[in-house]
Design goal:
13% strand; 435 residues; alpha/beta; eight-stranded mixed sheet
Length: 435
């Protein structure tokens, strides 16, 4: 009897030890690797396969990217109104009347008019929050379109002309704020005539090296410098060591979505657990399609630039959409008007009817969303642009709530200068300058 009791006790101890091991194994996997076993109970005996440990992937959420096109028929108004609707949806769904765009995105990339919007919404203000709300950004773009995009001299002088009105307005708004003063990861492109390569103003680079830190007023001026309207603008970094001669981002990178995705996937310091498109939430905002006739193509340099920008934007959209594969309906949203009202918008623009232009931008948002299919052109989706923005606002809030209980950081933004290293943002410019 004693022997039998001893064996029974050993078997019991073995079962307890095994159960304890399994409990801690499951807990460890649940909190570190996202393992989920809802049917687990003390009375059940589980065997956890070794393969499950090997294939377990850290659940650190999704990196949220906002990308804003340059150019288009609306000079930024369509994207600005999209952002206003998105911010309104975030406030309503979160119950926070002070919620802002910068709270719900980790990365922003903007080109041309989109770069200006990115700067307005993601530069830190005196109160620690963003300088502008989305609605305030709409008013800024509406009020200052003529200063930023339309006023210029003609002839050879425009090559040396620094657009005084735009520069004065940007300096008034941003003061001495630099890329280091932005709230999240910021990427704003231009084309550098000195290196003859795209140059991307990057917060990550600015924090690593003063030679990559520029005033936000200069950044905004560089990305909006239309080569056929105002010519190139010359500027230097804060430490005056880096000089660039810039024309607008619409020339280099009218749709910066792919640049933003590449930056995130290759920046393991700030996005340590992001390994593929399935780890991203991306919204890409277009600015409406330009409308040009054959005469415009042959007589207007601006026509060539805008057509090239629109074409590049569509190609990026198609390629990115294909790259997302099965995730493109859930992880990637493109907001773009279908061009039906482009002629009406051009007429309103020439007449400078601000209220009418805003109403047309609203009409564009009410259109069915345009989806690009690689090698197959475009098609109209079932959802409108506004409906897609509404759904995306819900996804952003879900990710925000998930992070409140996560023990793994999705984003680790740099806060201080580290050892010099060139990020993916400016690699192209730096390499071009070296040869």
């Amino acid at each position: 009897m004693a022997a039998i009791s001893t064996v029974s006790m050993l078997d019991s101890d073995f079962d307890v030890d095994k159960l304890t091991y399994e409990i801690f194994s499951i807990l460890e996997n649940k909190f570190l690797f996202g393992y989920d076993e809802p049917k687990f109970s003390i009375n059940q005996k589980h065997t956890i396969p070794v393969d499950q440990f090997k294939s377990a992937k850290p659940i650190a959420g999704k990196v949220r990217i906002l990308s804003i096109d340059g150019g288009g028929a609306t000079d930024g108004l369509l994207a600005a109104k999209s952002l206003a609707h998105l911010e309104s949806g975030l406030r309503r769904k979160s119950g926070n009347p002070n919620a802002c765009i910068a709270d719900y995105f980790d990365v922003v990339a903007g080109s041309g008019a989109g770069g200006i919007l990115a700067a307005l919404l993601f530069t830190r203000g005196n109160d620690g929050g963003p300088m502008f709300t989305a609605e305030e950004a709409v008013k800024f773009v509406t009020k200052n379109r003529g200063k930023i995009f339309r006023s210029s001299p003609v002839g050879i002088l425009r090559r040396f002309f620094r657009p005084a009105k735009a520069e004065k307005e940007f300096r008034r708004v941003f003061g001495d704020s630099t890329l280091k003063n932005t709230l999240k990861a910021v990427l704003i492109p231009c084309y550098d005539l000195t290196s003859r390569a795209p140059f991307v103003f990057s917060r990550a680079d600015a924090l690593e090296m003063d030679g990559y830190d520029f005033k936000m007023s200069d950044v905004s001026l560089a990305t909006s410098a239309h080569p056929a309207v105002m010519g190139a603008v010359e500027m230097r970094s804060v430490d005056e060591r880096t000089k660039i001669v810039a024309v607008g981002g619409g020339v280099a990178m009218n749709n910066p979505t792919s640049a933003a995705i590449t930056h995130v996937l290759n920046n393991k310091q700030e996005f340590p657990f992001c390994n593929g498109v399935e780890d991203l939430l991306v919204v890409s905002l277009g600015n409406g399609e330009s409308d040009f006739s054959a005469g415009d193509l042959t007589s207007s340099p601006a026509g060539f630039v805008k057509i090239a920008g629109d074409g590049a934007s569509d190609m990026v959209d198609q390629a990115v959409s294909m790259a997302f594969g099965d995730s493109r309906t859930s992880n990637y949203v493109r907001i773009q008007a279908n061009g039906i009202v482009a002629k009406r918008l051009e007429k309103m623009r020439k007449q400078s009817k601000k209220g009418d232009m805003l109403s047309i931008a609203e009409e564009m948002l009410g259109q069915k969303n345009v989806e690009s299919v690689l090698f197959k052109g475009k098609k109209l989706a079932e959802s409108t642009n506004l409906e897609k923005l509404e759904m995306f606002a819900g996804d952003l809030i879900k990710e925000q709530e998930r992070r409140k209980t996560s023990i793994l950081p999705t984003v680790v933004l740099k806060k201080a200068t580290t050892s010099p290293r060139t990020s993916t943002a400016t690699t192209l410019s730096t390499l071009s300058s070296s040869y």
